[in-house]
Amino acid sequence: MKLPSRDEVRQALEDLVAGRRSRDEVEDWAMPWVVGEADVTDMAVWRTLNKLCQADARDTPGVYLYHAVDFQFWLEEYERDVTRWAEE
Fold first, then answer.
1. SS (H, E, C) the chain
2. pLDDT at 37
3. CA-to-CA distance for 62 and 8, rounded, in angstroms?
4. Which range is least confidently modeled, 29-33, 34-38, 72-76?
């Protein structure tokens, strides 16, 4: 299975940060590539898909492990990864 594009991953992160898509939606979107037979060709995309699969993780019942500040950090980290791997 081919990974989604960098733009698609960026859009998922931006939607999560802005509240346009729920944690569940983003997690469900990312999950098939992580648990399936993905053709890993882009480490920036792969690392971020793995994070997005945890967007709905809970610390305890009803308490999320990750919050808006974490999602914003994931987006910033993704942008750094894209730049770094584009230079290699």
1. CECCCHHHHHHHHHHHHHCCCCHHHHHHHHHHHHHCCCECCCHHHHHHHHHHCCCCCEEECCEECCCHHHHHHHHHHHHHHHHHHHHC
2. 80
3. 29
4. 34-38
Q: Give me the pLDDT at residue 88, please.
A: 56
Q: CB count, 10 Å around CB of 23?
A: 17
User: What would the mean pLDDT of 27-41 be, rounded to a whole number?
Assistant: 90
Model's pTM, two decimal places?
A: 0.90
| Token pair recorded at residue 88 | 């290699």
Q: Are 67 and 48 in contact (CB under 8 A)?
A: no
Dist CA 7 CA 12 (whole Å) = 9
**CA 14/CA 8 separation, integer angstroms:** 10
pLDDT at 66: 96
Question: Which two tokens mark 56?
Answer: 């709905």
